[in-house]
Specification:
- The structure is a single chain.
- The protein has about 130 residues and is an alpha+beta fold.
- The protein contains four helices and four strands, in the order αβαβαββα.
């Protein structure tokens, strides 16, 4: 879905996509993540990571209010402002969407998420010549 609604429609070298795979379902393991990345998110602007201990998902589960009282952030899509850096604390996303249940942040067809990405890309400073 994100491949089609965001990556296939936004032609910008300023867009970087970091995908973190984490085990949630019984079939989720490193090999399944490697296989999925070859099929689902093939855009060259995408970098893939494996979080076998769910550390990142649990961290963001504490930072965000997830639907239904969930504590693990998975199947979550973040948008960070240009120049956002990970320092001693995890950065808070400028916007985010999920596929964890029906609320106002549900990804749906991805149109709202794509618009959030486009809005932040428009704020990306143009490098001086």
């Amino acid at each position: 879905m994100v491949q089609e609604s965001v990556l296939d429609t936004i032609d910008s070298r300023d867009l970087a996509v970091h995908v973190v795979w984490t085990p949630v379902l019984e079939s989720d393991d490193y090999e399944a993540a490697v296989a999925s990345r070859k099929e689902l998110l093939t855009d060259p602007r995408t970098i893939h990571y494996w979080d076998g201990d769910q550390d990142l998902g649990l961290l963001y589960g504490k930072l965000l209010t997830l639907p239904s009282g969930r504590v693990l952030a998975w199947d979550i899509y973040f948008v960070f402002a240009p120049g956002t850096r990970w320092n001693e604390e995890a950065p808070v996303p400028a916007d985010w969407a999920h596929q964890l249940g029906g609320d106002e942040r549900h990804l749906g067809e991805g149109e709202g998420y794509r618009k959030a990405v486009e809005t932040l890309l428009a704020k990306t400073p143009v490098p001086s010549p």
